[in-house]
């Protein structure tokens, strides 16, 4: 099958570098986490030491494993410091001083998202920790870990990477402190920050540091952030303020247009900290400069230093993706954890990643900002080979592949039909407000992959647990039939997020009509297959642009369709997302942000209103009836209070529930409406998945 080579500037092949001299030590069974393991490998030191907030699981679903094995394949000796005690520097000296650098990450999640709920409450569990135990990583883990690395070895270079560093690479709003913070690079006092998918940049940086040290010019490497004293000579600065003006093209000279030495100046940290409109403008420009085919470097002043961001990384080709996922992973947690269960590992151990990236561009989601919108797909052969490896080597494998997908289930091998159009495009989404006419939405390669995967000897079932992009799926009724007949169990999770046009337009999600069409096709396929399957829709409460009336209408839709959600999601403003810019500033960065002419967005910040929006999603819970009755009366919709099917909540209140029964229950009785982390769909209870933020 033809390799998908991205329509972007060329890049040096990932595995074409001359290997570092330490390749003679060979491949480690597990990357060492102790001096004893280093001794067994014959190492006197590590070239690179990776510090992570996750348990070390040597599997390609975990970022540190991919990065560690990739650097090992380049010839470097790589050690892992996993979930160190951050209260002093002792654990950071465990493996000695790295010859080249420390690589620091919070793990697979932003540490604040990992530790706190959308209501800023402390989570008591951590899926990436043995036993699921919470509290094994600090708040703002990247900053804290970098500080301890510096304390342990003051002259060791420090590189930041992973999603926490990636999403905090510029001045950003931090929901947990409710303020705009500096770039994490400066707060961590690190040497370099690698954003996005890190493979290309990290391999190049590692070889350069091995050759000439960390004090050199890295500005030609994509996907990096670093600090400078001033803009070097020869660069033409384009002000972010000018990029959305109607005469943008005429304002710049032809020499400037033709130059490849243009750098975009974002509003300074001090400016975005004090001026919400400047923050919204910076957010808009950052997202417009996200296509590797046309993105330009950016700079942002922080005090007396310039934060410099190079253009986004060039996506991996299919052969490169295959080679990365075929590195010699042990495909297991490090033996140091013994028999302890690690929830994230239990969930993904028999799953397969087939692609990266997402061109959906949902404004509340961090996938596009981190992985990019260009889909990077593995080859069919590589995927089937991994399934065979799981079958032959996977402990406890029962013949079920738990998931075959990626950030979405059904964007495999989809891309722009025209490489030149792809390289020039600045649209934040290929599917909003409508599916772009230049997008190839064929599901044929994915259908073929499904069929070959489930035909492998020893494979009983191949499940699709990743989110299905339903507006794409309706383009292929054959795909939906294939999904229903072979690749789902009793239910399929789907994410329309809302029913009303106001919030959907701010989320960059399709109208509820697309969901209705998908449901029709799904139900028809289930009937034809004689299977009793259901859809589980997900919704978000309190997203910017959502009114109380919007939530009321969503609740009425849920009741009409007999959906009862127990666990629901309240909008969580994750760093750098467009929705977060709306939440913080009250302006809409999806439209031009011009002084005095920016589109305003209603935001839901007060705890009382956020709880009301959440209560509408759980209209069936008697605990929420008092607040809903009060709100409906204030909205002039008391007609929705009563026992009728068309009404939302009854006028009566069960004893021991609501305000009168807060903090207590009737002795010996349970509230029959209270669930335990499940979702009631037409009388069937189903578990829900963790938050997608």
Q: Could you write a compact summary of the structure shown?
A:
The chain is 32% helix and 14% strand. It has 693 residues and is an alpha/beta fold.
Write up what this structure looks like.
- By secondary structure, the protein is of the alpha/beta class.
- It folds into four domains: 15-221, Rossmann fold (3-Layer(aba) Sandwich); 230-303, no CATH class; 350-488, Transcription Regulator spoIIAA (2-Layer Sandwich), CATH 3.30.750.210; 491-621 and 674-693, Transcription Regulator spoIIAA (2-Layer Sandwich).
- The protein is built from 25 helices and 26 strands.
- A ten-stranded mixed β-sheet has the order 3-1-4-5-8-9-13-12-11-10, with helices on both faces. The chain has a three-stranded parallel β-sheet with strand order 21-22-24.
- The longest helix is centred in the last third of the chain and has 17 residues, at 512-528.
- It is globular and about 75 Å long.
Topology (elements, then pairings):
Blueprint: H1 35-41, E1 48-52, E2 57-58, H2 63-73, E3 78-82, E4 101-104, H3 111-115, H4 141-152, E5 158-160, H5 162-167, E6 172-174, E7 179-181, H6 184-188, E8 192-194, H7 199-212, E9 224-228, E10 236-239, H8 248-251, H9 254-258, E11 262-266, H10 269-274, H11 276-288, E12 298-302, E13 305-309, H12 318-325, E14 332-333, H13 343-348, E15 351-353, E16 355-356, H14 367-371, E17 376-377, H15 380-393, E18 400-401, E19 403-405, H16 419-424, H17 444-454, E20 461-462, H18 470-473, H19 477-487, E21 491-497, H20 501-507, H21 512-528, E22 534-541, H22 548-560, E23 563-565, E24 569-570, H23 578-585, H24 607-617, H25 625-634, E25 678-681, E26 684-687
Parallel strand pairs: 1-3, 1-4, 4-5, 5-8, 10-11, 11-12, 15-19, 18-20, 21-22, 22-24
Antiparallel strand pairs: 2-14, 6-7, 8-9, 9-13, 12-13, 16-17, 23-25, 25-26
Helix pairs in contact: 11-23, 17-19, 19-21, 22-24
